[in-house]
Design brief:
heterodimer, A: 198 residues, mainly alpha, Rna Polymerase Sigma Factor, Chain: A, disordered C terminus, B: 213 residues, elongated
């Protein structure tokens, strides 16, 4: 996705080239930060801080997956923010799912005509809210791997690179995260199953 | 829908989880598929994993509040440029000042010590006290007079014209006088500790400023 020449130019101190990389990756960086921190303001701060760190640390980037390198900085910055957050009350993600929140309804949740099928619409929104809440209830290590693989769609090796752990650790953490999410949804009254889909 | 099937073992759940992601080697994948075809518990778990994966992949994406592009003033060097040389110069000046102060202080203390040692009579002088005054240099007398013990000081202070006694002290009185305790080494250690602490504080402040700037 990224142009290696931008990385090369940015490493030489070309801020415009670096800002092209920012534009290319800022959506994903913000999404990851938002899912890890559960708060839009904290996520924006962490994303900005991560890009600044990335710019200053570009010399340490060797050839390879720039996105994984960048997301590693983002997740580390979020871990730092989470450590600081423990001393302060956190803001729930539920607000994002309220009407007018920062999120935009996903295709699988969005009923083309909510007025025609209000029950399904409301149910889907409630399910999304439950999933978000369960995701936030995971320990940070489990949440990170679920966000990277399930929400962001990274493969195991890239997630392992981002989290600086072996691929086997990604595999086991993800399985445990999914088991916890399943239990959490069940406790909230949802039955995560999709019969007929295979 | 109720989950009436027996739960999978953690190892089986992990294998199935990786299968859903297409992350199993071919032979393991075939084994899982064979199990899925015959075991309702595996089928139910597979459906759960698929639903979770689908649900998470389609969560509403958050709306990015702004662009995160960097402005030139945001990326100007924090610890390089003109500020560091001045910071180091200040630190070096403070260090030199402290060292000079210590050296001068220590020098004064060291000067006093040999003079006092030279002024003290040799052990044999106790046996032959008469020989002692002749061996004493006049400077030693003056130094010793300035460092008189408390009894002499009190006596001198009691007089309205408090002046240090002039003239040689009788040898008997001098030999009976207790040798004053040496407070200097302890004091010097305290000064050294204070100086080291000060330097460490300066270094930390500079480092903190460098990070924050």
């Amino acid at each position: 996705m990224h142009d290696p020449t931008w990385v090369e130019a940015a490493r030489r101190g070309d801020l415009d080239a670096f800002n092209r990389l920012v534009l290319a990756y800022q959506d994903q960086a913000y999404r990851v930060a938002y899912r890890l921190l559960g708060d839009p303001d904290a996520a924006a701060d962490a994303t900005q801080e991560a890009f600044l760190k990335a710019y200053r640390g570009l010399r340490t980037f060797r050839a390879g997956n720039f996105r994984a390198w960048l997301l590693r900085i983002v997740t580390n910055t979020c871990y730092d923010a989470l450590r600081r957050q423990r001393r302060r009350p956190s803001v729930s993600l539920d607000a994002s799912l309220e009407e007018g929140g920062p999120g935009e309804a996903a295709a699988w949740l969005r009923d083309p005509n909510p007025a025609a099928n209000p029950e399904t619409y409301a149910e889907n929104r409630a399910l999304a809210a439950a999933l978000e809440a369960c995701l936030q209830g995971l320990p940070p290590d489990f949440r990170a791997v679920a966000v990277l693989v399930d929400v962001e769609g990274l493969d195991y090796p890239t997630a392992a690179q981002v989290l600086a752990v072996p691929v086997g650790t990604v595999k086991s953490r993800l399985a445990r995260a999914r088991a916890r999410l399943r239990d959490c949804l069940r406790a909230a009254g949802w039955e995560p199953s999709s019969p007929g889909e295979r | 829908m109720k989950h009436a099937h027996r739960p999978l073992s953690p190892a089986a759940w992990e294998q199935l989880s990786a299968y859903v992601d297409g992350a199993l080697p071919p032979e393991e994948q075939r084994a899982v598929e064979a199990r899925l075809a015959s075991d309702p518990a595996w089928q139910a778990a597979w459906a759960e994993l698929r639903a979770l994966k689908t649900g998470l992949a389609h969560l509403p994406p958050p709306r990015r509040p702004r662009d995160f592009t960097l402005a030139p003033e945001e990326v100007r060097p924090r610890v390089r440029g003109w500020r560091w040389p001045w910071a180091w110069a200040g630190l070096a000046a403070a260090a030199v000042g402290l060292l000079a102060w210590l050296v001068v202080g220590a020098g004064l203390g060291v000067l006093g010590e040999p003079a006092r040692k030279a002024a003290a009579p040799p052990p044999t002088a106790l046996a032959v006290p008469q020989a002692a005054p002749a061996a004493r240099p006049p400077q030693a007398e003056a130094l010793e007079a300035a460092a008189l013990p408390a009894e002499d000081g009190r006596a001198a202070a009691s007089s309205p014209t408090a002046r240090p006694p002039v003239g040689p002290t009788p040898p008997e009185a001098r030999d009976a006088r207790p040798v004053p305790a040496e407070p200097f080494p302890k004091t010097r250690l305290l000064w050294l500790a204070a100086a080291a602490g000060g330097l460490a504080l300066l270094w930390w402040l500079q480092r903190r400023r460098g990070r924050g700037g």
